[in-house]
Design goal:
Blueprint (H helix, E strand, L loop, with lengths): L5 E11 L2 E10 L3 E13 L3 E11 L1 E9 L3 E13 L3 E10 L3 E2 L1
Antiparallel strand pairs: 1-2, 2-5, 3-4, 3-6, 6-7, 6-8
């Protein structure tokens, strides 16, 4: 999803019997990310959530988590990043979600 500071993505895929993966990332085009504060949630199969909060220094970021469960599986993302470039900027990562798959 495109925002004022760049783009963010989230998707789910099946990686085995009763195993799914949720992957998320972002690319910033207005500076360097110095702090990410991302909330990722998934379910109902293998339902859970993860607060992806950490300092960093990059224009790109991506990661994933493998989830065990059975049934419908989808994920959501939202949050914010702090950027540094010509000045410190706070950018919101708009809440968005994936399609639902079966694991």
């Amino acid at each position: 999803m495109s925002g004022t500071c760049g783009t963010s993505t989230i998707y789910v895929d099946k990686v085995g019997t009763h195993k799914g993966r949720v992957s998320w990332g972002m690319h910033i085009n207005t500076g360097y990310i110095v702090l990410r504060e991302i909330a990722v949630a998934w379910g109902p199969a293998g339902g859970g959530s993860f607060a992806d909060v950490s300092p960093m220094y990059s224009t790109n970021y991506s990661t994933s988590r493998t989830v065990s469960g059975s049934g419908n599986f989808s994920a959501t993302i939202g949050g914010a990043v702090q950027l540094v470039g010509n000045k410190y900027v706070h950018c919101t990562i708009p809440f968005h979600s994936t399609n639902t798959i079966r694991i």
